[in-house]
Structures are given as structure tokens and as C-alpha cells.
DNA sequence: GTAGGGTTAG
């Protein structure tokens, strides 16, 4: 047991993330990939691997698959450790862990612990001339004729060393491949692996996967050895081109040819699976690597950290931190940045803050990316004090700024409603040399002015955008429309909308939501103008609004059409759509329709937790409802309760309705509107003294109110 | 000069 490389948390993950618990972790390794299933293969023999033969069928004959090699081992050396032997703090465990228990047996290795050795450089005295020559090649026309012309000027014969030096200094991939092919035709020396590797690296910059693959096949044909550097270049190029199946295919091929990946190739592949969101496979690979004696470095942990952040897996992030500590791996700047970003993804601002402090204390200075992550996290969390303190520190420490960080600061100001600070920043950007405001900056400012209801400043920005030719994007357009709608400046709204369409803005569901919400408080001519805009963005919505106005429309028809609209709408825009449509119905005095829509919204799960019940209290939660929807929900509730009182059914002691305090920047004054509606109904709900936005009524008050209403109705 | 792996915006 002493030799086991697993830590307590490993156990947790080996259970959570082993791809198939029938197979103990560390053995059978069935990847499930979109196109096919395959099994990792590697050689376990002591003899060095043979150079790659030419076809994969030959390969399989020569090298048995890993699964085949491991079969006898897996049935003899593995056992499940009884639960009592488990380390403490593994409360998440539901199954006994599986691991190696016979340390005298060799562990099957999935990666080579030895990194690929680089050939040492010898000094080339012709370096100046050759670099100058390479620069000429870089700068000349891409046509083959122009290139050939410059080639004539080569200052020294293209020996192996000279050619390599030039190849290393070529930048556009077109030039690299031309030069590579030329060197080949010169036939002065055999083209070794390093020539292919250098060329591939340049092709990777240009994302030319197909050419890289052709080169690789050329190597196979010419019996030039593919080494770890070749494979990692191919794999990362496939990854950057989003050709993940290709990346996996080449990784698989490595083992088949008997070449063991080293840690660079291995972590590149970890990243491939991480980018595919295949957490189980990554953890399985990770654990198998660890079981092979691999001590992962900061880069590998950065891959894991990013993956867990994307997966929103907080336990995963903690695991990465603890694993690094256990293995004595010091996080570097990139690891900190990745983990901070991940903390943001899982919404843990407090942990992000302490991680940042730990980083600064350890003597690592934050860069633009670090600060961008942290600023965004504080903004999203509405941690105004921390955000402003951080900003002060950035200024006094002279920490680096770039325009993404500027824009993120602006967005944070929008999130926190910091108008003056945003204006200051925006001016700084205008005055700066490298961080001029772009469409993001303008959008952030439009957001700030829009939610602060500062129409004039928002329109001034719009004029600047038109004059300066800054791109107006769909979010900026949405902010303007919200703001102009609330100010009832419908002609300006139409102008902005038409301008945006002309500039190529594609209206999305949020933009339609804004138009819908403007519709809900428009009358007369204005209504028609806004409807005309909405018609251009989403004609189906306009048809639906017309349809629900018609008295003859049946509930069945509304239901069908509403369902179809929701299906066409992105998930996050569905509730706002329903809210607005309910408001529109109420404003047109088609309250019956409003009730139908609320009913359907509830059925389709747009209002989860609208009603909550405990033995003592029933609560109506209308925080995420619009004013009209909240009124509708209250009426519906009162109707239900009335029936229950009449039938003398059991009722709790307390009734409450929660509107929220209405402090959010998008709040439409729901608490006061709700209070007004309660008064109109003369319902016995009172604003709670302890909690803003909570309206409470006792059973006795409610029952006597219901009874007096019934009496009045029958009288 | 250094043939290969990881991190920033609604």
C-alpha cells in the first residue's frame, strides 16, 4: 500500500470519474467517442519500440493492444480494498475503491516518464546572414515565382544546419512549406524528423491541419521516424482546428506503433478530452498517468482546472488545488489565472479572492488576464467594495492593463451601476494609445446609461457610434431600445432599430424581449410603430399578439401557438417573453388570456417555485414575474384559496407573497405595484416589517376576507 | 535562434 500514488481525493474521483465502474480504474479504458470506440494500446515490453511501419493493419499484428496486454494482469493483481481501509474524509465514497495492491508487479505504463531529448544546437556563424535571408523570404510575394527569385540569393549553401536555421525563421506557413519542399528537392542530405517538426509547427500557426497530416503521411511513406514532438504538434494542431477526432486518432496511432507518449504529448491529449468535455476520460487518463509514476506539472493542472471550471464542478477545482499541494507542485501565473477563471465559472467569488491574495503573497504579480477574471467575478457577484478596492490596487501598483481589461472594468461598472467611474474609464480609453474604445466599450456604456435611464447620454453615444463608424452590436441595440422605450421616445427607438438592421444587427430573442416589453406599456400610434419593428424581428410573435386579442380564439389555439413560440425561443428568453405577453394582455383588458398564459407558463416550467408550502406557511413567490404576471398570479391564488375556504379545507397559519425588495437594476417597482394591487383587492396582506418585499396575511384575516367577499358577491 | 503541451470579455 505504501507505494500507492493515490491520495484521498483520488479515491473520490476514481469513483466519480471512472468511465465504467465494472472496470477498475487503471485498466480497461473504453473511450466513447462520437464516431467509434477504441481502446488505448501501448507496449509494456522492455525492448525499445520499433520505428513505425507503414500500415495500420501491419501495426496491429506487431503490437497487441493495451487491453490484450493487460488482460491477465487485470484478473490477477487487482482487488477492491474493503471500505474500512479507506482514508478519512472520503464521505463522498459510495463504492470501495480499486487500486493496485501488488507493488511488486510492474504497473502498466501509459506514458513515458522520460521527455524527448532534444539535439543540442551548435553555434552557426552564418546566423546573421541566414536570418536576414529568412526575413527576405518572409517579406517577398507568396507566389512561387517570387519565392524562387529570392531563393537564388541564398548567402550560404543549404547544408543541413543552414537549412534548419532558415526553416526555423520562416513565418507564414506558405513560405515554410515552399522552403521545406525546395530543400527536399536539393537532395543534399536526408530529411530528418526535425525538419518535418519545424515545418509542422509553422503550419500549425496557419491552422493547416490537412497539410500537416500530408506531411505526416509523407514521413510514414519515407520511413522517417515520428517522435513525440511530431505527434504533439499534430495533436495540438488538430485540437486548434477543432478536429478532435483527428487528435484522438493520432494519439491512438502512437500506441499502435509502439511509441509511448511523454508528458508533453500526454497533457496535450488530456486537453483534447477536456475540450470535448469528457471529464471521465480525462480523470481516467490522469489517474493512469499517476499510476505510471507521472508527477503532473503546472501545465497539466492548468488543463484540469480549466476543464472543471467549464464543467462548473467546484469539487473538481478543489481537487486540483489539493492534488497540487499534495504533490508539491507550485502554481504558476497561468495556473492561478486558470483557477481564478474557474472559480468565476462556479460562482465562488470569496474563494477567488483568497486565491488571488495567496498568489500575490507568494510573490507572483497578476497580469491582465488575472485582473480581467477577478474584475468580472466581483462585478457578477455585485461585490462593489472589493471591485473598487481592486481597482485602486491596480492603479497604485501599476498592474498591467489592456483593452480587454478596460472593457471588463466597464462591464463591471455596468453591473454595479458605477456611472462616474465608467465615464472616467471611458475617457481614459479614448485618450489611450492602445486601448481605444471598441464596440464592447460602447455597449458597456450603453448598458450603464440604459439601466440608469439616462436617455440623453445614451442617445449621444448612439450618435457618436454612427459618426465614428463604431460597430453597433445586438446588445448595444437592445440596451438602447429598453432605455428609449421606458422614456417613451418611440420615434428614436424606431430610428435606432432601423439603423441597427441596416448595419447588419441580427435581432435575437433578447432584442425581441425588449420590444415586447416596450409594447406592454405602449398605446395608440406608438403601439403600431413598435409592432412594426417587432414584425421585422419576429413576425410570429406579432401574429400571436394579434391572435390572442381575438375573442373567437380558443384556448386550444393559444396553447398550440404559444408552445410553438416557446420552442423557437432560447431558454433564457422564455420567461421574459411570457411575462411581457401577460402584461400586454392585461393592458388590453384581456385578463382571461393573461390567466391562460400564466397557466401555460407554469405548465412549461417557466416559473419554478412559484408556490412553496410548509405546514405553517404557504407562499407565493413572484420575484421573477413582471408586474402584470404577479397580479395575475395573485388573483389566481386568491381564487384557489377562496374555493378552499368555501370547501372548509385545511389551511396553514400564515400566507405570504414575496416580490423581492426590488433593488435590482431591472426591477420595475414590483413591490409598490404589488402593494397597490393588494389594496385594490382589499386583500388582508400587510408589508412585513422585517423583510422588504414580503407581504403576509394570517389565516383568520384571509378567511374572514374571503367570506365577506362571497357575501358581497351573493348580495 | 532554441522542433512539442496550459490562461483573458455580455
From TrEMBL:
Disordered: annotated span: 42-117
A single GO BP: positive regulation of translation
Stored Gene3D superfamilies: Tetratricopeptide repeat domain
Annotated Gene Ontology cellular component terms: chloroplast stroma
Keyword Ligase part of the UniProt annotation: no
Classification via SMART domains: SMR
Polar residues bias (residue ranges): 57-79, 87-102
PPR repeat placement: 227-261, 262-296, 297-331, 332-366, 367-401, 402-436, 438-472, 473-507
Smr domain span: 620-703
Matches recorded under Pfam families: PPR_2, PPR_long
UniProt-listed InterPro entries: PPR_rpt, PROP1-like_PPR_dom, Smr_dom, TPR-like_helical_dom_sf
The keyword Transmembrane helix is assigned to this record: no
Keyword line: Repeat
GO molecular function terms noted in the UniProt entry: mRNA binding; rRNA primary transcript binding
Domain of life of the native organism: Eukaryota
Family: Belongs to the PPR family. P subfamily.
Record protein name field: Smr domain-containing protein
Species whose genome carries this gene: Escallonia herrerae
